[in-house]
């Protein structure tokens, strides 16, 4: 999101309340969406549920091209469009919904750092496995990514995407890694998250923050997505406190929400500082 | 104690023990851990065993080039600066390194390599002066292209040259990162208590260039000046772990940036003089050859010269 737009957004956003018609756009859930996009989308949905902000999820085959930054998911609220978790968190904050107000400066610094850790290692590892592991790319990623498109276009788009991701891996020095090393990185990242979480219910004790939403989004998606091999999920399953963390958030924000949607959203809003 | 390791990194300059962030990280870590490395400070990345700097050559395991790989190698040889850290502190280390790489590094690359005034006045100038002769004409711009490409891919948008907008966004992220680091450091001497760890090496590697190199055009530096604890942190590391490079390093960049190139160091001057004389002589000779003032003839026994027969010992003769 550009700066001018952002200044505009934060001015306007404060004035207007959160509309009921807010919509989140993501690629087609059954046939198209890939692990990394699905994880990002789930993270945003979790964050909004934690804030108690209602959102409708809409699947569009061209979601990636609709997004202002070219990345999914993005939300459409009132007459504004905001993409990716970071800007969405800021946007919600401008509207008076923040999860991290109760943290002190050091905790906020740590929260930001761990969010970057998840983006830097988990997200990159997901992209690597999707596009740089040949069997996953040819069996899952390319066919799924291009499923809405007809013959010549599907190959063009999926190879273009793959080429793009590989170039990025080159630039950040991941191109030389093999699958084993990537799994090791994932393990290391989970180890760090698990250490940080310890026995607490959330990363910063009693109250959920955007970090919890982000970690849940990625771990839960990794655990529930069928890939060419189960190795990735196995790496996460080695950490029992992360598993129960995922389970807890799923119970609190997804199961209960579906049962008594309006009631629990008011409840979770009320428990914020 | 295995075979002695050799570390290749960018040479010192601009008031720093090394001009390159990755080299600084590795150097600092090696000092923190007390690893007895044989350090080659060079200015030609092609002379490193991996073709890029920094690089560590170990006796049995070959060479590696990324800072994280080098640190792992050093750790394997029992030079571990993170030995005292708890598991949670280890986790924090990983998290803050990610924060640095995602938020501060792009702005640092931008400030040094992409911002045209900084690049022309400081970065390219230093590299052109310090890289050895034929390479200094194209290596700096090749390095710039590489950095530009890298930045573009990290940020994931193709509109980097458009300047203003991209710069503001990068610097905003970096400012936030600096504030977070400053808050995390607080009044501690190092990030985890009284002894430095690998996180300190990473932070030092990213901050020291911003603090020490005098860039003509960088808002980030102005902001960093106000974060006293980060400034103290860097100068503590410089004075404790790089005592030899410390004192004269602070004064030099200013004089270099402000005075012209006339105060250049001696060995290069002599070489440049020699080179220019050679070039001039070569130019005059070729002019003389082409215009026919001088002709080359083969003086064999009976053969008349004049033909362009190019084998055999060449002999010069002047004819008026």
Automatic annotation (TrEMBL), chain A:
Coiled-coil segments on the chain, per record: none
GO cellular component: SAM complex
UniProt key word Transport: yes
Chief localization: mitochondrion
Keyword list, A-Z: Acetylation, Membrane, Mitochondrion, Mitochondrion outer membrane, Protein transport, Transport
GO biological process: mitochondrion organization; protein transport
SUPFAM superfamilies on file: GST C-terminal domain-like
Boundaries of every Metaxin glutathione S-transferase domain copy: 187-249
InterPro entries: Glutathione-S-Trfase_C_sf, Glutathione_S-Trfase, Metaxin_GST, Mito_Protein_Transport_Metaxin, Thioredoxin-like_fold
Gene3D superfamilies on file: 1.20.1050.10
Domain annotation Thioredoxin-like fold: ranges: 40-135
Subcellular location: Mitochondrion outer membrane
Domain of life where this protein originates: Eukaryota
Pfam family, one: GST_C_6
Keyword presence, Membrane: yes
Subunit structure: Interacts with MTX1/metaxin-1. Associates with the mitochondrial contact site and cristae organizing system (MICOS) complex, composed of at least MICOS10/MIC10, CHCHD3/MIC19, CHCHD6/MIC25, APOOL/MIC27, IMMT/MIC60, APOO/MIC23/MIC26 and QIL1/MIC13. This complex was also known under the names MINOS or MitOS complex. The MICOS complex associates with mitochondrial outer membrane proteins SAMM50, MTX1 and MTX2 (together described as components of the mitochondrial outer membrane sorting assembly machinery (SAM) complex) and DNAJC11, mitochondrial inner membrane protein TMEM11 and with HSPA9.
Family indicated by similarity: Belongs to the metaxin family.
Function, in words: Involved in transport of proteins into the mitochondrion.
Protein name: Metaxin-2
The species this protein was found in: Triplophysa tibetana
UniProtKB/TrEMBL annotation, chain B:
GO BP: any one term: protein transport
CDD domains cross-referenced by the UniProt entry: GST_C_Metaxin1_3 (cd03212), GST_N_Metaxin1_like (cd03078)
Superkingdom of origin: Eukaryota
Record Pfam families: GST_C_6, Tom37
Annotated ranges, domain Mitochondrial outer membrane transport complex Sam37/metaxin N-terminal: 23-144
Major localisation: mitochondrion
UniProt keyword terms in alphabetical order: Isopeptide bond, Membrane, Mitochondrion, Mitochondrion outer membrane, Protein transport, Transmembrane, Transmembrane helix, Transport, Ubl conjugation
Ranges for domain Metaxin glutathione S-transferase: 175-237
Gene3D superfamilies: 1.20.1050.10
Sequence similarity: Belongs to the metaxin family.
SUBUNIT field: Interacts with MTX2/metaxin-2. Associates with the mitochondrial contact site and cristae organizing system (MICOS) complex, composed of at least MICOS10/MIC10, CHCHD3/MIC19, CHCHD6/MIC25, APOOL/MIC27, IMMT/MIC60, APOO/MIC23/MIC26 and QIL1/MIC13. This complex was also known under the names MINOS or MitOS complex. The MICOS complex associates with mitochondrial outer membrane proteins SAMM50, MTX1 and MTX2 (together described as components of the mitochondrial outer membrane sorting assembly machinery (SAM) complex) and DNAJC11, mitochondrial inner membrane protein TMEM11 and with HSPA9.
Protein name: Metaxin
The organism's taxonomic lineage, starting at the top: Eukaryota, Metazoa, Chordata, Craniata, Vertebrata
